[in-house]
Amino acid sequence: VQNTKQWYQRRVAITAGENFLRYNCLVAAMKLNIAYPATGCQKLLKIDDEKILSVFYDKRIGQEVPADRLGDEWKGYILKISGGNDLQGFCMMQGVLTNTRVRLLFKDGMPNYRLRRSGVRKRKSVRGCIVDSQLSVLDLVIMRKGDGEIPGLTDVTAPRRLGPKRVGKIRKLFNLSKEDDVRQYVVHRPLPEKDGKKARSKAPKIQRLVTPARIQRKRKVLALKKQRTEKNKVQAAEFAKLIAQRLREKRQALLSRRRSSNRTSTSSA
Q: Tell me, what's the pLDDT at 23?
């Protein structure tokens, strides 16, 4: 009861704060987190101009918006809305068609929820997928680059800290064939050097790598599976033969009892 009372008081306080901001038109500065996947860089812009932010209002996650209002250097850029967080830190969720916060019942497999115990469902607060002025951070992705360069975003390239780990992705990255040795192309990450010691590096363990040991193990598993199948067939045939034999014995015993009863009735007559 005490936990329920505390939750209700906290909920009332949060709702009162939202209503105060909404009805008094106090729009806080919104941060735009803009990412450019081609270079792996991000840039954070803090904007408090309502005219600039209004171009994103009433748009949903996944929609594309022209970025011309952000400045002359953004002319020709197209941004896609990928998510965001409100003033209290609750994230936006795709498919929730509202611009307010709602409480949904989450289960295993749904986004924004990680299952801790098997079969557990949990009710959580999430923001709708429609953008409004109550957001503190809006996540954007550059879908089309304009004519100019954005300092710190499109003019520099951030190197990947970690390389791919799976065999197929390593082959795709280096355009390798089936005959090439994938182990020679693993990306090694250099470690910080220590005084008087040899330079060291770390590399990931390659996943889904087909080796002679893996082929032999797979052949063994298939052979054991085949042996189990043949053994089950033999045991099933023996069991069927045993059942048939017992049925014959039961039938013969029944016939012998009937014959003996017929002889007894005939002799008595």
A: 44
Share of the chain above pLDDT 90, in %: 65
Q: Place 16 in a pLDDT band, splitting at 50, 70 and 90.
A: low
Write out the DSSP string of the chain.
-HHHHHHHHHHHHHHHHHHHHHHTT-PPPEEEEEEETTTTEEEEEEE--HHHHTTTTT-BTT-EEE-GGG-GGGTT-EEEEEEEEETTSPBB-TT---SSEEEEEE-TTSTT---SSTT--EEEEEE-SB--TTEEEEEEEEEE--SSPPTTTTS--PPPSS---BHHHHHHHHT--TTS-GGGGPPPEEPPP-TTS---EE-PPPBS---HHHHHHHHHHHHHHHHHHHHHHHHHHHHHHHHHHHHHHHHHHHHHHHHHHHHHHHHH-
Rg (the chain; Cα; Å)? 35
d(C-alpha 227, C-alpha 59), whole Å: 62
Predicted confidence (pLDDT) per residue in 221-238, tens digit: 999 999 999 999 999 999
Please report which confidence band the pLDDT of residue 265 belongs to, taking 50, 70 and 90 as the band edges: confident
